[in-house]
Design a protein that fits this description.
50% of the residues lie in helices and 19% in strands. The protein is an alpha+beta fold and 213 residues long. The longest helix has 74 residues. The radius of gyration is 56 Å and the shape is rod-shaped.
Amino acid sequence: MVLSPSYTWAETDTTVTITAQCPGATSVGTDVFSSPHYVSLNAPPYFLELDLHGQVSSGESVATVRRGAVTLKLRKAAPGAWGRLLVDLPRLERLKRRAASRATAEEETAALADRKKSKTWNESRYTLQEQMDVDRASREAIEQAKAKEKADEAHKIRQWQHSVGRDPMATARPAGRLAAAAAQPSAAAAKRSAGAIFDEEAEEEPRIVELDH
């Protein structure tokens, strides 16, 4: 069986506070709905719904549950005294006003969810962009390090080539002497060669043979 709890209310120029007595109510088991002109709370077996005299900012409403008392603190859409909590309208008009108020609250909730989703997406995209920037900087640092290492190696090679090639004739002279030695035969070899030629020519020289008369 659904029970209607007893409640009290108070107001300031900017807020309306409603406290409903719901013995056994807990924050986990209590549902509260707030819209510009209509609020409700459900803490089984207690249920309370109120068609407000003025308009509140539903997105700024706060509900607390403590020791079986459910307190709604509503912020007025515009400052000023209401003088009364509930609107005085015929039932049909009141229900139409309630339905419009609920629809407005649902639209505001959907818009808030979209804003949160967009914010989450933007933050995620920003985080991804930051990571991409970090990766790009890391790759550039690696490429720069490789280029520097390559330049250092090339410099070392040039230094080595310069140290080896300061006296180009240092390595050419022995080769030149060897070439000269190879080109000029030794005296003995020349003599032997000349002797061989002489001997050959001597062999070819005609002999004088005495003939018997």
